Amino acid sequence: MARVHSSWRPVDKAAILVVRQWMRQTHPKTTMSDIAALTERSYQKVQRQFSFTGTPLSLADFTLICSYFGKDVETAWLEVIASSFGDAADADKEAYLRRIRLHSDIIHLVEAYSNDESLVDPPPPEIR
Question: Do residues 52 and 7 make contact, with C-beta atoms less than 8 angstroms apart?
Fold first, then answer.
């Protein structure tokens, strides 16, 4: 089976760096073996991911890891995106994060509106 080269984008690397930071903050320290067991991946695959080779961390795996560390997935992604900017100007980074937060707020408002039955117009009298 031929290996497929996977290109790692800055956001892929940032996700691993954020997870590494969480791992160091736990006591006892979370290991790559713990992450492998959690994500049901081999230790070797996780080791390759933490070395930025192989395939990047999937969104599903990142979500599992967020839950394991008690992190809100949306907030964690904002942290990953912010850290993926590297040396970008702070103004650019803040503008991008404001756009993401606004998008997220709009989605939450639409979901809240669609789930609120009091906001739905009653059917016309002839249909009742």
Answer: no
